[in-house]
Design goal:
Number of helices: 2
Number of domains: 1
Number of strands: 8
Strand content: over 45%
Order of helices and strands: EEEEEEHEEH
Largest sheet: 4 strands, antiparallel
Structural class: alpha+beta
Strand order of the largest sheet: 1-2-6-5
Distance between the termini: 15 Å
CATH class: Mainly Beta
């Protein structure tokens, strides 16, 4: 699932989902795509925190964070986060889902809207159910 735009202030953010086969395991990953004119420097480690109906869920980066400069267009940063099926379901079925993404000296807050959750539910129904 790509281009799942999450509106808010401070750069353009997409929160996407993907299944990656690792050996015999099928793992779910969320990826954050941050696009702006200035670097955010997504932190490695525990840099993505969700608040799902008031319950905290902290996710840690998996692998290297990708950073690219697009001449005349700005920069992109992409970070991957492994998430369990149980926690992924919580994102879909929760009434309220907020998240905080931590950068080197800054952070941003976002809230999933009904369209975001619908796209995650469609992904779940197509690939995981």
């Amino acid at each position: 699932m790509e281009w799942n735009y999450v509106p808010g202030d401070g750069g353009t953010v997409y929160l996407n989902a993907q299944i990656i086969n690792e050996g015999k395991a099928r793992n779910i990953y969320l990826n954050i795509l941050y696009a702006a004119n200035d670097w955010f420097f997504i932190e490695e480690g525990n840099s993505l925190m969700f608040l799902i109906n008031g319950e905290k869920l902290l996710l840690s980066t998996s692998g290297d964070i990708q950073r690219k400069v697009f001449s005349g267009y700005g920069i992109n940063e992409i970070a991957w986060y492994k998430i369990s099926l149980e926690d992924f379901k919580k994102l879909i079925f929760a009434e309220e889902v907020k998240f905080k993404l931590s950068g080197k000296h800054v952070y941003l807050n976002r809230m999933l809207n009904p369209t975001n959750k619908k796209r995650f539910a469609e992904f779940y129904n197509q690939y995981l159910n």
